[in-house]
Amino acid sequence: MQQGQKNTAPAGSFSGSLAVDHALAGVGGAVVSTVVFHPLDLVKIRLQVDVAQRDEAVLGRAIRATRHVLSTDGIRGMYRGLSANLAGNCASWGLYFAWYTWIKEQMAGGQTAETQAGISTLSPGQHLGAGAAAGALTQCITNPLWVVKTRICTTSRGDAASYRGLIDGLRQIASKEGIRGLYKGLAPGLLGVAHGGLQFMAYEEMKRRRQRSKSGGNFSMFEYAVMSSSSKVFALSSTYPTQVLRSRLQQQPEACVSSAPGASGAPRMARYSGLSDVIGKIIKTEGVSGFYKGFGPALLRVLPGNIITFLVYEKISGFFRRNATR
């Protein structure tokens, strides 16, 4: 078979289901990036929930937050919440890629919606819709994991209200706050599902156009890195405020402290009654910039992390396509 025919022929499946293939590839990428970049994730979340006033330097807050973690929990503290983060990311990436692939197949009339070269056959609008729908379904399933992760990352090991780990956190929230506690922050999480849609719309289009310009052939690791990072910056910049809102709603009520100076480096958290209350208080006390707190560490964490995730994902899914049996 000629190269052009290989690039346009429908992709085969390694496991018997293309959705499962993509889910496994997504989990592989999630494990690597989460383990490497968890410390930045922890600092990002602490900045997101911090109600520091708008005139306080972002870099200074990030440094103080890091010093506080190191002084209270040591180096191990920078990996506090790793189990919850791993569970959340593996479940999210695995489910997301599975849903995304399955939804694309339904949009394609039940047929494989990508070629053997890994290029989607759908339109940008379909990618946006499939990505948003996959994000909403994934968010509804994984929200409890993100609540626990946020609460562990915003407390120190010795705090009275801290959880011992993922299972302990899920158990305590379920017993003290019920189902509503496990689904705190779901509303802004659902508002942010456009993130995945925008990212994959841009990523799929860049892959398609790049393949056309180079007349087929495999992409290099550098090309995957550029396309994945560019699409991530586009999506993150557009939807980042929803992450701040979600973190504020998911923080632990017992851990909230006054915004007055004190507790050097510890996040100064406030209590919120709901989504509208969070938005109103941020605008009033922190300004528009409050919706982008932690954006710097988020970029430092998600760009290399996203590149690693997509490189591993593309390599694994490429292996599955080359060794497809069905």
Task: Give your account of this protein's structure.
This protein is mainly alpha-helical. It has one domain (35-317): Mitochondrial carrier fold, CATH 1.50.40. The chain is 69% helix and 0% strand. The protein contains 11 helices and no strands. The chain has helices spanning 3-8, 18-49, 58-77, 82-107, 124-153, 166-182, 186-191, 194-213, 221-250, 275-285, 295-322. Helix 5 packs across helix 6 (166-182) and helix 8 runs antiparallel to helix 9. The longest helix has 32 residues, at 18-49. The radius of gyration is 21 Å and the shape is elongated.
Keywords:
326 residues; mainly alpha; Mitochondrial carrier fold
Q: Tell me the strand percentage band.
A: under 5%
CATH superfamily caption: Mitochondrial carrier domain
Radius of gyration: 21 Å
User: Shape, please?
Assistant: elongated
CATH topology: Mitochondrial carrier fold
Low-confidence stretches: 258-263
What structural class do helix, strand and pairing data support?
A: mainly alpha
| Beginning-to-end CA distance, first to last residue | 17 Å
Q: Number of DSSP helices?
A: 11
| Total DSSP E strands | 0
Mean of pLDDT: 84
Give the helix proportion (percent range).
55-70%
Biggest β-sheet description: none
User: Helix and strand succession?
Assistant: HHHHHHHHHHH
What is the CATH C-level name? Mainly Alpha
What kind of oligomer do you see? single chain
CATH architectural grouping: Alpha/alpha barrel
Give the tally of structural domains.
Answer: 1
